[in-house]
Amino acid sequence: MLIALAFTFLPACRHHSSPVAPEEAAPTPAPPSPARALGCGLPSGGGSGEDCPQESPSYMAEVEQAIDLAIFEHPEMINTQRARGCANCYQVLDTHNFPEEVARNLEKRGYCTKYDGEELAVKSTNRFNDQYDILLSEGYIRRETTGAYRATCYPAWF
Predict the structure, then answer these.
(1) Per-residue 3-state assignment (H helix, E strand, C coil) for the chain
(2) Are 131 and 52 in contact (CB under 8 A)?
(3) How far is CA 147 from CA 22, 84, 143, in A?
(4) What's the chain's Rg over C-alpha atoms?
(5) Cα separation of 48 and 116, whole Å?
(6) What are phi and psi of 6, to 5 degrees?
(7) Residues 109, 62 contacting (CB under 8 angstroms)
(8) How confident is the model over 110-129, as pLDDT tens digits?
(9) Calpha distance 42→24 (Å, rounded)
(10) Distance of CA 126 to CAs 20, 49, 120, 135, 152, Å?
(11) Which pLDDT score, from 0 to 100, does residue 38 have?
(12) Alpha-carbon span 111 to 39, nearest angstrom
């Protein structure tokens, strides 16, 4: 009788479950896109940087725009109440970082730059680079009108 009783409860204990579909793996996320590299991505041009002739600047307009953007983005680096040589040849209060900001602005636009503490070298090809002296020794911005362009080097030295 005990056995008969057990068989009557067995159907109630039986689990009726539908087969479980295998868990789908979460889709593999796409790898993060690489951060856009600053600059032109060129290796060194192999030039010496010596005996570079003064010709016509190739990047003067871009350098001027980069200077203007640095002034706009970092007014704390500039005294716009004092100028020397031209109306917007402002006094630079941070002569260490200001040229670096100008260089960074050019790099954001795809140019390669190198600031050696005296001149800013700019290139977009290894065929040549231009040299710009964007600061007067007295700490004022030097622009196109005051002789910022210095020379063109063949091939690019950096």
Answers:
(1) CHHHHHHHHHHHHCCCCCCCCCCCCCCCCCCCCCCCCCCCCCCCCCCCCCCCCCCCCCCHHHHHHHHHHHHHHCHHHEEEEEECCCCCCEEECCCCHHHHHHHHHHHHCCCEEEECCCCEEEECCCCCEEEECCECCCCEECCHHHCCEEEEECCCCC
(2) yes
(3) 73, 13, 6
(4) 33
(5) 14
(6) -65, -40
(7) yes
(8) 999 999 999 999 999 999 99
(9) 45
(10) 63, 12, 16, 25, 12
(11) 56
(12) 5
The residue type found at 145 is T
85: left (phi over 0), alpha (psi -120 to 50) or beta: left
Handedness of CA 72, 74, 75, 80 (dihedral sign): negative
Residue with the two structure tokens 């954001």: 108
Q: Tell me the two tokens of residue 103.
A: 């260089």
Q: Which whole-number Å values give the CA distances from 106 to 29, 41, 77, in the listed order?
A: 33, 13, 18
The answer, yes or no, to whether the previous bond of 99 is cis (omega within 30 of 0) is: no
Closest CA to 52 of 158, 137, 151: 151
C-beta separation of 111 from 120 below 8 A: no
Q: What pTM did the predictor assign?
A: 0.75
